[in-house]
């Protein structure tokens, strides 16, 4: 059956790969992000390559009024969202707590925690009304363990873990699946954003071992949506084989 899948943060990394994976399997997509040109490019590529319908929605997930506008103005048929992938997120800066930058903290908490909440608050009622749906939150190994200078990013992903568990409890009676996929190190634009455009530092993070790719993550997200109605993956930690936990890597 063709599904409507809403993926936040589909202009790069996991979100884009997840969009491609669902498109390859014939689903129609709502994709979001702030970078309009990239978003339109991804939408065009998906329509041309997979002959599906794609609705791009360009907005900043930190701004509740923009999120409201984007969701409330969806054409009626697009409101039948079967799967919401709360993926948009970022780490900014890597400082010890006493040298933290307030703006970095706000960007992380507003995007990773509040943005995810805004989306869930608007989409979940549509699922509740239809008595079906699947919400997939992208957590992180950083939501399970702290690492040096991870402080606020880790806190934001611990919050995603808690929100996922709470969402699952609250939506249980409404037949809505809630899944968290929590990856370890993956090579995307993530480190470039964390290190504020310092490409050498970002590239260095992925040296000496094989990190996950965005496609690896997309594969697992998609798999979690293919199970029978009575089966749900609550929680899945997905790591590079060369990474044992948040801090221990086997590097050559
Ligand atoms: P990327 O930087 O490649 O992608 C992040 C996506 O989020 C982009 O599409 C970006 O779009 C979007 N985004 C960021 N801020 C906003 C905003 N304010 N409003 C709307 N969209 C926004 O990183 P990843 O693909 O790696 O990250 C995706 C998710 O995975 C994040 O939640 C991240 O925390 C998590 N994660 C990443 C891991 C990794 O090692 N890469 C491991 C574990 C979890 P745009 O800039 O166009 O707005
Ligand atoms: C991203 C993974 O370990 O770099 O969430 O924080 S990590």
Number of helices: 8
CATH architecture: 3-Layer(aba) Sandwich
Strand content range: 5-15%
Output the CATH class name.
Alpha Beta
Description:
The protein is of the alpha/beta class and 252 residues long. The chain has one domain (4-238): Rossmann fold. Helix content is 43%, strand content 15%. The protein has eight helices and seven strands. Strands 3-2-1-4-5-6-7 form a seven-stranded parallel β-sheet, with helices on both faces. Helix 1 runs parallel beside helix 2 and helix 4 (102-130) packs parallel to helix 5 (151-171). 41% of the residues are buried. The model has no long low-confidence stretch (mean pLDDT 98). Bound molecules: NADPH dihydro-nicotinamide-adenine-dinucleotide phosphate and 2-hydroxyethylsulfonic acid (8X3). 2-hydroxyethylsulfonic acid is lined by residues 140-142, 185, 246.
How is this fold's topology laid out?
Layout: E1 4-7, H1 13-24, E2 28-33, H2 36-50, E3 54-58, H3 64-72, E4 83-86, H4 102-130, E5 133-138, H5 151-171, E6 176-183, H6 190-194, H7 199-205, H8 214-224, E7 235-238
Helix pairs in contact: 1-2, 1-8, 3-4, 4-5
Bound molecules: NADPH dihydro-nicotinamide-adenine-dinucleotide phosphate and 2-hydroxyethylsulfonic acid.
């Amino acid at each position: 059956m063709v599904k409507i899948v809403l993926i936040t943060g589909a202009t790069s990394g996991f979100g884009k790969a997840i969009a491609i994976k669902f498109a390859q399997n014939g689903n129609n997509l709502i994709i979001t992000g702030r970078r309009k040109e990239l978003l339109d490019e991804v939408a065009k590529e998906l329509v041309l390559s997979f002959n599906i319908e794609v609705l791009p929605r360009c907005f900043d997930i930190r701004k509740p009024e923009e999120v409201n506008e984007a969701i409330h103005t969806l054409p009626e048929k697009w409101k039948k969202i079967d799967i919401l992938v709360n993926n948009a997120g970022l780490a900014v800066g890597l400082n010890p707590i006493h040298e933290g930058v307030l703006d970095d903290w706000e960007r992380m908490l507003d995007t990773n925690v509040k943005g995810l909440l805004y989306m869930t608050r608007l989409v979940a009622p549509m699922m509740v009304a239809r008595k079906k749906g699947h919400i997939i939150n992208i957590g992180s190994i950083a939501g399970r363990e702290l690492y040096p200078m991870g402080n606020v990013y880790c806190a934001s992903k611990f919050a995603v873990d808690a929100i996922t568990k709470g969402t699952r409890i609250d939506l249980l009676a409404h037949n809505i699946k809630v899944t968290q996929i929590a990856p370890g190190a993956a090579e995307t634009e993530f480190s470039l954003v964390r290190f504020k455009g310092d490409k050498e530092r970002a590239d260095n993070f992925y040296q000496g071992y094989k990190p996950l790719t965005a496609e690896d993550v997309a594969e697992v997200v998609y798999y979690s949506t293919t199970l029978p109605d009575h089966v749900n993956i609550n929680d899945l930690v997905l790591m590079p084989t060369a990474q044992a936990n948040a801090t221990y890597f086997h590097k050559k």
